[in-house]
Amino acid sequence: MSSVNGKTYWVPLESSPDAMNKVIRQMGVGASAAFSDVFGFDDELLEMVPQPVHALVFLFPLTDKFEDPRKQEALSSENKVSPNVWFMKQTIGNACGTMAIFHALGNNQKTLPIGNGDLAAFFERVNGLSPEAKAAELEQSSALADAHKSGAAEGQTEAPAADAEVEHHYAAYAIVDGDLYEIDGRLPAPINHGPSTDVLKDGARVIKKRIAAFEGDSQQFSVISLGQE
Q1: What are phi and psi of 81, to 5 degrees?
Q2: Which of 26, 39, 65, 125 has CA 20 to 30 A from 114's CA?
Q3: What is the DSSP letter of 213?
Q4: Any idea which residues carry the catalytic annotation?
């Protein structure tokens, strides 16, 4: 964790299940929750993903061409968001990997027991707060910052500096009140993608459309599922 011109930064988290699992274990989440790779969107590859799947984490290039349509969708008058969606704004630089973890787990608190550790205490502390107030509480949590740091050190590549300019970003996908949501603390609101009972298949469908609209190397994307060990 570092601070530059008054803004807090965390070391970027590598897109790997091992790194994310290290983070949640450090936050007190037991084997009731675990992250796994999604190797592709063909039916055979989706069948390889450990079931049940409760959420997806999507890594993508941080470009204006990719971001602008998502912002427009979030601000659209047709984007109806349930008040039960757990949503927190991102104010900490380079914390998007762990933000996606918060959004994946925060929107599955009734289906995935998360123990009695630091993350459970944080969820209880911010219950009912605005997205901005949740973010302010996170900035004060040294325990959650340390858990993130432990995961950032778990990656297969050397972690960049906390205030490094990163080229990728994370978003989470979860079902709340029967609708599939794309949840990203950089956006003004979660994006409602319509009715769903299968976050893996429906999330994969939305992500495939996101990737298809991107003119570039498809290897810049990755998807990780949240399920159970």
Answers
A1: -115, 125
A2: 39
A3: T
A4: 96, 169
